[in-house]
Amino acid sequence: MAALSHDLGHPGTNNSFQKKTNSDLYQRFGEKSTLEKYSVYLGWKTIIEHHMLDGVPSNEMLKAEKDFEAIILQTDMAHHTDSLAILNKPASEITKIEFASILLHAADINSPFLRPFQNFLARSNACNDEFYKQGDAERQFKVEVTPFMDRGYDMSQQAKMHPSELQSLQQRLSYKQSLAEIGFVERVAKPFFVQLANRWPPAGQLVENLNANLEELKQLSVELST
Ligand SMILES: [Zn+2]
User: Fold this and answer.
1) 189 DSSP assignment
2) How far is 207 from 209, CA to CA, in rounded Å?
3) Cβ neighbours of residue 120 under 8 Å, at least 6 residues apart?
4) Which of 59, 98, 114, 150 could disulfide-link to 119, CB 3.0 to 4.6 Å?
5) Residue 17 and residue 135 in contact, taking contact as beta carbons nearer than 8 Å
6) pLDDT tens-digit profile of 182-219?
7) Same domain assignment for residues 14 and 83
8) Which domain covers residue 122, as residue numbers?
9) 36 alpha carbon to ligand 1 midpoint, in Å?
10) Are residues 133 and 174 in the same domain?
11) CA 153–ligand 1 middle distance (angstroms)
């Protein structure tokens, strides 16, 4: 239920955007894990309204709600380092709920291990589209544009460009995206999945997939740079 609910109501912009623009969600749920708290709220409300846990004793319900919240809050990328720290603990000290939250976080950042490469690329493009849309919105709101969400040029200049210039610009954008993606896979995803596989051998296949994607990505990046 936590996995199904973890992105409920997600507006396609991140927590920092909510803060920068002082959005309704920011005002309602505060600065820490704004969107995750909103998803907890919507998910738990749905569970209660649809009587999904009717019959569960009230003391167990309290625990279920706490666990539901903990698992979803852990999907906030701001907790990525904590998730890695949990994986580094001795197995006997990792609670079931912590392990469940680790697996959900792993599933949440799944693009690096999607094979074949085209599937990874399709997901990367979808994320990138969402980032660039946020960058555009930041520009509209006249707040600081998040560097990796910046299309890298003034929208008003696009119309003035010759088609061939525009094409080369798009190629540069893809190159920029490939660099951002390499950074994410190498520095964020890989250490996490390597450690997950150390603790839980079935995840070894994910590391193999990730490495294969990383190799193809680097090759593509070199081609795009020329
Ligand atoms: Zn998600």
Assistant:
1) I
2) 5
3) 111, 112, 113, 114, 213, 217
4) 114
5) no
6) 999 999 999 999 999 999 999 999 999 999 999 999 99
7) yes
8) 111-225
9) 10
10) yes
11) 29
The two three-digit tokens of residue 39, written as one number? 């998803």
Q: Check whether 153 has a pLDDT greater than 60.
A: no
Q: Which two tokens stand for residue 142?
A: 């006249």
Residues 6+ apart with CB under 8 A from 139: 145, 155
**Domain end marker among 31, 55, 90:** 90
For the chain, the average pLDDT equals: 91
Within-domain flag for 64: yes
pLDDT per residue over 33-90, tens digit each? 999 999 999 999 999 999 999 999 999 999 999 999 999 999 999 999 999 999 999 9
Closest to 111 in 3D by CA, of 40, 35, 193: 193
Q: What is the DSSP string of 67-98?
A: HHHHHHHTTSGGGHHHHHHHHHS-GGG--HHH
Q: 104 alpha carbon to ligand 1 midpoint, in Å?
A: 9
| pTM of this structure | 0.89
The answer to whether residues 79 and 128 belong to one domain is: no
